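Students often ask why inverse folding is considered easier than folding. One informal answer: many sequences map to the same fold, so there is more than one right answer. In these notes we will look at a single instance of the problem. The structure comes first.
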């Protein structure tokens, strides 16, 4: 499925742009989209970027999001997901414009971020996406690439409707090249861990968005099954029951507890479904033959 998503617009006096500049900025933009997709879908969606068209005067690249999912083309759910992804990507550039590459950490900064974001409801996902170093490094390198090309006088990220998410002028490029990654706190407030593990189902509900309970490493955990890889398998017709085990790639969001100087698990998400393990029935020695 192809769906128009965002626009990157390069301002200049000519109708062309250096190929290296274009390729480098598209690569960095791809990094932002990829991380936004990970944060938003938990691995259940697969997206790629396509360059659609060029516009004379200013150099415009229309970017499409191609989804490889087992759904009816142009389904409401797919269209809504593309719109949400665009909002997150646009919001990342908005935050970068305001914070100039610095991570959003304090409650006051998060409150400001909530005020800045104008596109969509996924505020926490947008902030988490922006806070990833790989994302902020990608935007910073885009600014550096644009600054090194004298023909680029401006760089704008636009949404599907043509609205400006963030606009950068040549005189500002150097200000938006962030070089503070090495000085950021060694212990981030939040981190994401992923592992291959086996979960045993102890409580389940097939309504989308409901909570399931699992046994994980000897204790019970719960998570919302909404749009992750497990719900995708259910949509494809896989049947699950209590006592079944599933081998998955599990994502744990952990928050640093300053009092205990340790990370605490705050949320869980299944990002990849590997295997459905159905337990064998116990043989009853007193069954009649």
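Output (designed amino acids):
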């Amino acid at each position: 499925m192809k769906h128009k998503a965002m626009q990157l617009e390069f301002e200049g006096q000519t109708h062309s742009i250096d190929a290296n500049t274009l390729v480098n900025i598209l690569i960095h933009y791809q990094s932002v989209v990829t991380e936004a997709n990970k944060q938003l879908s938990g691995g259940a969606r697969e997206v790629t970027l396509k360059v659609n068209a060029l516009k004379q005067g200013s150099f415009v690249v229309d970017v499409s999001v191609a989804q490889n999912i087992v759904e009816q083309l142009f389904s409401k759910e797919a269209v809504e997901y593309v719109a949400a992804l665009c909002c997150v990507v646009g919001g990342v550039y908005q935050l970068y414009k305001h914070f100039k590459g610095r991570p959003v950490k304090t409650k006051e900064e998060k409150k400001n971020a909530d005020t800045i974001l104008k596109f969509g409801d996924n505020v926490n996902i947008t902030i988490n996406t922006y806070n990833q170093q790989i994302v902020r490094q990608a935007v910073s390198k885009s600014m550096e690439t644009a600054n090194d090309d004298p023909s680029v006088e401006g760089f704008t990220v636009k949404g599907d409707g043509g609205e400006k998410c963030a606009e950068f002028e040549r005189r500002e490029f150097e200000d938006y090249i962030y070089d503070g990654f090495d000085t950021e706190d060694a212990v981030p407030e939040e981190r994401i861990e992923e592992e291959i593990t086996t979960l045993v189902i102890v409580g389940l509900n097939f309504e989308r968005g409901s909570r399931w309970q699992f046994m994980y490493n000897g204790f019970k955990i719960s998570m919302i099954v909404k749009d992750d890889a497990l719900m995708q398998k259910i949509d494809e017709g896989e049947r699950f029951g209590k006592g079944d085990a599933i081998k998955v790639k599990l994502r744990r969001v952990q928050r640093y507890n300053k009092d205990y100087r340790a990370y605490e698990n705050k949320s869980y998400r299944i990002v990849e479904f590997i295997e459905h393990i159905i337990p064998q029935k116990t043989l009853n020695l007193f069954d009649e033959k």
